[in-house]
Amino acid sequence: MAAPYEIDARQGRACILGVAPDLAAATRALQQLAGDPAFKPDYSVLVDLSDVETIPSKLDVEGLALCLVSLRERYRGRVALLSSRPPLFGSVRRAALFAAAHRFPLDAFRTRERAEAWLAEEGPEGA
Question: Over the chain, what is the mean pLDDT?
Fold first, then answer.
């Protein structure tokens, strides 16, 4: 089975693509990426949630944020969640707020351009 992500060592970035049908699939992809020896902890990560079909539960939202917080040693760079669908965006925005309470550099974006611009900013601190 192919990995649900791509790693670009030149840019110091990973992109998680095609996670479906739910947010739990994104959480599993983040766990898989963390274990990949080609992924370096300081890389930034774009999580494209365009294929997520369901509105996540509060438990799924917190699970995604807690996954990243618990893997803090493997995720020291910024992590951007991308969703243009309003109901899903609201949910992933809550995940970003939850992570921020734990001082984890996670944010949610509606456009790829804004997400990539934020990921390219210097330092792991949030926007």
Answer: 91
